[in-house]
Specification:
By secondary structure, this protein is mainly alpha-helical. The chain has a domain at 3-157 and 225-243: 3-Layer(aba) Sandwich (Rossmann fold). The chain is built from 9 helices and 3 strands, in the order H-E-H-H-E-H-E-H-H-H-H-H. Helix 4 (114-131) links the parallel strand 2 (103-108) and strand 3. The chain is globular, with a radius of gyration of 19 Å. It starts with 7 loop residues before the first helix and ends with a helix. It binds nickel (II) ion (NI). The site of nickel (II) ion has 6 residues, from helix 2.
């Protein structure tokens, strides 16, 4: 069930049985010569949407522009400043909390977002900690590729050239989600270089076609289907556990 495809009475009815929601969160940034600019948003969105449909869990709109300053050397990439993202996430959290949501599961598709999402959580919790009041909601973030068993599945399908950015797995997931947008591109070199980076100019110089360590020409929609099907089950399990648990009761025991 998608929040943005539901009516408000339907959301009201959902809240009567569950106080949890999944928010896919990603990025709009280059993903190499054959990867879509929306890859990091499309991946968590398709996994969460399928999980939500199968398990009757509400899935909110995708927070689809994140921390991608280092990709701005490539056309189409967009970024938020960390301070902007922290402020925006707090407004999303407060809006949902106002309606009675008590567990918000940020399902992340972009490694560059992790520290800023944690900072946004600290900013939100600080409102309560400084006031000496208990926070009424629980926040969680989880990266899709770190769900139990997902990385092992990706490495099994792509033992060579999975890489770190514009990976064969994430491009496969987008090919499964959007088969009409599959691009056939020869990679040169076949496997991209690896290493660190600082700003956008530095990134472009070190990684001229945008990839890091990967050969995403191996990507297939069939591999994407296998990864999504595996990740979906893991997400359902984790979301059910998070939405069902009572932190206050556990802390009191
Ligand atoms: Ni990515």
């Amino acid at each position: 069930m998608l929040l943005h495809h539901a009516t408000w009475p339907e959301v009201d009815a959902y809240l009567a049985r569950c106080k949890g929601i999944i928010i896919p969160i990603g990025s709009t940034e280059q993903h190499g010569p054959n990867g879509l600019v929306g890859t990091d948003s499309i991946c968590p969105e398709v996994i969460a949407t399928e999980a939500g449909t199968e398990a009757g869990i509400l899935v909110g709109p995708t927070f689809n522009v994140g921390i991608a300053q280092h990709h701005l050397g490539f056309a189409g990439s967009m970024t938020l400043r960390p301070s902007t993202m922290i402020a925006a996430l707090n407004d999303w959290i407060e809006s949902l909390a106002r309606h009675g949501f008590e567990q918000i599961f940020f399902f992340n598709g972009h490694g560059g977002n992790i520290t800023t999402i944690n900072a946004a959580f600290a900013e939100y919790y600080a409102n309560y900690s400084l006031a000496g009041e208990p926070c009424p909601i629980q926040l969680m973030q989880r990266n899709w590729w770190e769900l139990n068993g997902v990385m092992a599945t990706c490495k099994k399908i792509f033992p060579v050239g999975e890489g770190m950015h514009a990976t064969a797995s994430e491009v496969s997931v987008t090919q499964y989600a959007l088969p009409q947008a599959i691009k056939k591109v020869e990679m040169s070199p076949k496997i991209a270089p690896v290493g660190g980076f600082a700003d956008a100019a530095d990134y472009r110089e070190r990684f001229p076609d945008g990839r890091i360590g990967s050969d995403p020409a191996q990507a297939t929609p069939e591999a994407g289907a296998e990864i999504v099907s595996f990740a979906k089950q893991a997400l359902i399990g984790e979301a059910r556990e998070f939405f069902g648990m009572d932190l206050k009761t556990e802390a009191a025991e």
